[in-house]
Amino acid sequence: MRTAYHQELAYFQDRLGDLAQLAETAIQEATKALLDNDIEAARGLTAQGETIARLHRLVDADAVTLIARQQPVASDLRMIVAGLRMSGDLDRMGALARHIAEIVERRHPTPAVPEALRSTIAEMGELAQRMAAKTREALANQDPAAARKLDAQDNAMDRLTTALEPLILACEPPVTLTEAMDLALLGRFYERFADHTVALATRVAYLTGAPQEDLSV
Amino acid sequence: MRTAYHQELAYFQDRLGDLAQLAETAIQEATKALLDNDIEAARGLTAQGETIARLHRLVDADAVTLIARQQPVASDLRMIVAGLRMSGDLDRMGALARHIAEIVERRHPTPAVPEALRSTIAEMGELAQRMAAKTREALANQDPAAARKLDAQDNAMDRLTTALEPLILACEPPVTLTEAMDLALLGRFYERFADHTVALATRVAYLTGAPQEDLSV
């Protein structure tokens, strides 16, 4: 009975790892679709988003079943509750990647990102993807120092976000109103994606035994 | 023992209700601060946001303690897990109200919303607040039909969101790039706030016994 239980726990963790991999791939592909103005790739993200949402629901259902059937001890319960929250973060990360792709679809055939801002958006996209990769590894290795290791990248994302508005306003030739609106939203989507990777890393710390406040990030 | 347990459960539910009340007040005050260009009120929202975040952490900690100590039966477990998710939604709703207030602070003394768009933004704000109020009532009354009752308002919010971009582009005199960016973000914040009220209402349905898929909205 306990062996089956531990298999279920391990399976639950594996699925979380799958979700983390999907979210990482999604942001990478969304950024590529955005910079390449690739409408087919952007549409592909919608299907991928559904896969992520479905897996998220399965993970959540598993978590509730595990708690109800197995009445887990404290440390396992922490893991499952943290897993429930992580599953929610990863689902949102998938949704944010999809929102980026939706902007590509909405503006096609016009590229959403003007030439002068390509490098900034590329940098935000790459940073978001690297943060997702680090979080996925931290989850796989149950690394309690994961959140701290994201600090430098999180600060870099904050700097990029703060710099974005002046860059948009200083563009030559000036951006259109539509471009300005899209860029403001894109900046917001990458920033939120990064926030979720930090929240995930903090939850990894929680499930390895960090103070209780960390649960509710 | 069981009596103490049921008191704790009732207390947990009451705190969720408090959070729902705070989120509703926050969006109302944020919209007012935005339309009145009231910097003091906007700053007040930051303090209020901290109150919401703190209560959210308490609710989460209570939920984990309840599960660990009481090993609740299936229906109570559903309620507590749904409560954990609701607490997360309400915390995000508070954060979105704060983001609206931050735009007021960033642009002050210039009003963030140009005259021509005041009525649309006022309508979004009022709708968001009414949706929050309905969700709070549904939570208090454990109304399984809550999500359905939000349908009309959710559709109205979708229409307003879709209409916003053409309205921004058609403004006379034309909006500035900064105004366009702020308005795009404001539209997004109200839309997300409304999404969370729908998610909350769906969780109320779940905890009263609706199908399991509803958990993971």
From TrEMBL, chains A, B:
Q: Which GO terms describe its biological process?
A: intracellular phosphate ion homeostasis; negative regulation of phosphate metabolic process; phosphate ion transport
A Pfam family found in this protein is PhoU
| One GO CC term on file | cytoplasm
Location, primary (coarse class): cytoplasm
Record domain PhoU: where: 18-104, 121-204
Q: Which InterPro entries match?
A: PhoU, PhoU-like_sf, PhoU_dom
Keyword list (alphabetical) reads: Cytoplasm, Phosphate transport, Transport
Task: Name its cellular compartments.
Answer: Cytoplasm
Checking Gene3D superfamilies in the record gives: Phosphate transport system protein phou homolog 2, domain 2 (1.20.58.220)
What family does this chain come from, according to its entry?
Answer: Belongs to the PhoU family.
Q: How does it assemble?
A: Homodimer.
Q: What does this protein do?
A: Plays a role in the regulation of phosphate uptake.
Q: Which NCBIfam families match?
A: phoU_full
This protein is called what?
A: Phosphate-specific transport system accessory protein PhoU
The scientific name of the source species is Amycolatopsis pithecellobii
Q: State the encoding gene.
A: phoU
